[in-house]
Amino acid sequence: MILKKLTANHPDIPALKKLYDEAFPENERPMSMDTILAFMDQIPCDLLGVYPEETPGEFSGFFFGIRGEAGVYGVYFATRPDLRSTGIGGKAFRAIVEHYGDTQFWFSYESVFEESENSEQRERRRNFYLRNGFHETGWFTKLNSTEFIVACSKEEFDKEGFEKFMASMAAGLPNPQALPQLYRRDTECEK
């Protein structure tokens, strides 16, 4: 798997924008891709294009993550719809995690509730992250009334590092409400 750092003027940005809009529901896109691209030089982040080794010029997906002292927060990861269920997502995801070495890597995905409109899709996403080495932390976040499970690449979750990371990111973003707050179900709120 080939990962290429993308900039706002990369020729694959139109395909990336299309994938971003298709792969994530509107409530999970608090910022447009244009806004993300405009602020990339102001925050420590990576926008990586995913390209198969067999066809290195074929844009297949992307990852957007924010780096911090304690770890990397994966904000978005998606592969093209026509490539899903082919194994490319798992290969790409493992390559992305490897790219950051031993750094703790955090990701969040929608909580799975049977009554959710897209409960099967949520279950598939959850299984994808767990199958690719992530561990559920027992912590949750909420964004635009959607609850997310926080998972990490290490068995022990660095909660303090995660909270410091989120606080520093909120201070540097044009829309600090775009970053969710961490909570436990047993102490703060229900779905």
**Quaternary state of the chains:** single chain
Compute the number of strand runs: 8
Q: How confident is the prediction overall: mean pLDDT? A: 88
Model regions low in confidence, pLDDT < 50 over at least 5 residues: none
- Tally of structural domains: 1
Number of helices: 5
CATH class: Alpha Beta
- Rounded Rg: 16 Å
Approximate strand percentage: 25-35%
Q: Output the helix-strand order.
A: EHHEEEHEHEEHE
CATH superfamily: Gcn5-related N-acetyltransferase (GNAT)
Record the strand order, biggest sheet: 1-2-3-4-5-7-6-8
CATH architecture: 3-Layer(aba) Sandwich
What would you call the structural class?
alpha+beta
Helix content: 25-40%
Care to describe what's here?
The chain is α+β, with helices and mostly antiparallel strands and 191 residues long. It has one domain (2-183): Aminopeptidase (3-Layer(aba) Sandwich), CATH 3.40.630.30. It contains five helices and eight strands, in the order βααβββαβαββαβ. It has helices at 13-23, 33-39, 88-99, 119-131, 159-172; strands at 2-5, 45-51, 61-67, 71-79, 104-110, 135-143, 146-152, 181-183. The chain has an eight-stranded mixed beta sheet with strand order 1-2-3-4-5-7-6-8, sandwiched between helices. A hairpin with a 3-residue loop joins strand 3 and strand 4 (71-79). The longest helix has 14 residues, at 159-172. It starts with a strand and ends in an 8-residue tail after the last strand. The mean pLDDT is 88.
